[in-house]
Amino acid sequence: MVQRTYVKCPSCGKIYQLKFQLDQNIQIYEWPISFECVGCGDNLAYRYGKQGLFPKEFMHMPSPQDPPITTIGYSSSLPIIDDLYMKDLDFAQSMVLSSLFLSLSFKSPFFSLEEVHRYDEFLTKMQYGLLPYKGVLNVLLPMLKKGNVKAFSNKMATLFDEKKYKPLDNTLEMYDSYFELLKGVYLNIAPQRYLYDCHARFIKPLEDLINKLTVDEVRDLKAKLDASGLISKWYKDEALPFVAKTIDNIQKILPATIYASAGIKDVAGNGDLKIVTISCDDAMGMYKEGYEVFAHGLKILVGLNNLRENSNIDVFTNSGLSDVNTITKFAEKAAGKMIEVLEGNGAFVDYLDGSMNNKIRNAAIHSGVDYNPITQHIGCHYDATDDSKVYKTTLMSVCRLCHVLILHLIETTLLARQIVGRAK
User: Fold this and answer.
1) pLDDT at residue 37, rounded to an integer
2) Phi and psi of 21, rounded to 5°?
3) Structural Rg of the chain based on CA atoms
4) The model's pTM
């Protein structure tokens, strides 16, 4: 079912028709709407939920006398095909209704109806297993960081069922409880295809490796990783805050998760679909922050993988830099240099799945971003000394990379916690 709503830009008066796909989530939770006005460049942000669109003062009643109306398809969960994004229509054309669900499966050859149904199953799992609790990690984090077991227990009892919830006795139980929640979040934002492929192929062997090591071997592993900065400090001060904040706003990138569900990595080459739940600035900010946090913890994945592949944490597979011969030296390198070290390791590069794109990150840091609100194409000026060097991507591509980064960050955090727990 599709519902029309009309809005007028408060800055220039440009009229837009928003066509909402009324899927299973859109009237249960509050969803973000964000796009740049093609008339004046103002960033227009709305919310849609049980009570309809907010803020209501920007709504508009259409008439045949209106100038061409720009139509924007909207779904809380689905990408938008080009035919339903930023199209100028006259009054009669704007009255035609079309299902975004069917438009995606029929007009985008890269997502079959079967694939969209599989994605719908993933969304249903998320609807019950994550969306009602997406703010829990963020709410509990301050008490976790302060080590206040009693306050943490009371908050857990408030958030969940007080009658069934058992109070925690110590700090260890508090951390175990939080990380169980984190694992639950991960299982709800990682589609089955990702779990059966990427996780099973790369992360599961690292989990098994930690379990097979003796306590002394785990302590030695932890000591070498801690030499360039405590891994426990990394997940407490960087990874957990970023993940908690981002999961609390997961609805902003939800339509991009269809790519992981379908096993598709090349967004621009697969229909150039659009997203209307996040602005370019917000997406680039999320990516930039996630990139930095992941880079600071990358030594954990690399060290474990070195140990698994070469039986030595300091031996790199086909390293791209000869001066990096220990995990400590690797951790001291800038993120771009870290990628050079790993470029010869095909399995690791495949796992990263483009999530550490230094050109996008550099453009975000140096404000070198050109954004076209009609095509959602992004030009990343990644070299601060040469403005002619441009990396081209799309808003949907960046959102897909944000999803991959979140998955990788949770995986790395759970591995770090596993090492810390076994080293005690």
Assistant:
1) 94
2) -80, 115
3) 23
4) 0.93
Q: Minimal CA–CA distance to 121: which of 180, 341, 129, 330?
A: 129
pLDDT tens digits, one per residue of 285-316: 999 999 999 999 999 999 999 999 999 999 99
Summarize pLDDT for 336-373 with one digit per residue, the tens: 899 999 999 999 999 999 999 999 999 999 889 999 99
Helices 358-365 and 280-310 sit at what angle, rounded to 10 degrees?
A: 140
Q: For the segment 81-127, what is each residue's pLDDT rounded down to a tens digit?
A: 887 889 887 666 666 555 555 566 555 666 777 887 888 889 888 88
What is d(CA 174, CA 240) in angstroms, rounded to the nearest whole number?
14
Alpha-carbon distance of 156 to 178, in angstroms, equals 10
Backbone angles phi, psi at 389, to 5 degrees: -85, 110
Note whether 171 and 147 are within 8 A (CB): yes
- The C-alpha angle with vertex 193 and arms to 191 and 199, in degrees rounded to 5, equals 85
Question: 227 vs 183, 328, 329, CA distance in Å?
Answer: 27, 7, 10
Q: Which residues contact 325 (CB under 8 A, 6 or more apart)?
A: 314, 316
Output the 3-class SS for the chain: CEEEEEEECCCCCCEEEEEEECCCCCCCCCEEEEEECCCCCCEEEEEEECCEEECHHHECCCCCCCCCEEEEEECCCCCECHHHEEEEECHHHHCCCCCHHHHHHHHCCCCCHHHHHHHHHHHHHHHHHCHHHCCHHHHHHHHHHHCCHHHHHHHHHHHCCCCCCCCCCCHHHHHHHHHHHHHHHHHHHCCHHHHHHHHHHHHHHHHHHHHHCCHHHHHHHHHHHHCCCCHHHHHHHHHHHHHHHHHHCHHHCHHHHHHHHHCCCCCCCCCCCECCCCCHHHHHHHHHHHHHHHHHHHHHHHHHHHHHHHCCCCCCCCCCCCCCCCHHHHHHCCHHHHHHHHCCCHHHHHHHCCCCCHHHHHHHHCCCEEEECCCCEEEEECCCCCCCCEEEEEHHHHHHHHHHHHHHHHHHHHHHHHHHHHCC
Q: Tokens 């008490």 identify what position? A: 143
Round to whole Å and give the CA distance between 298 and 321.
16
CA–CA separation, 37 and 86 (whole Å): 10
Q: Give, rounded to a whole angstrom, the gap between the first and last alpha carbons of the chain.
A: 55
What's the token pair of residue 44? Answer: 């227009």
Decide if 62 contacts 51 (C-beta within 8 A).
Answer: no
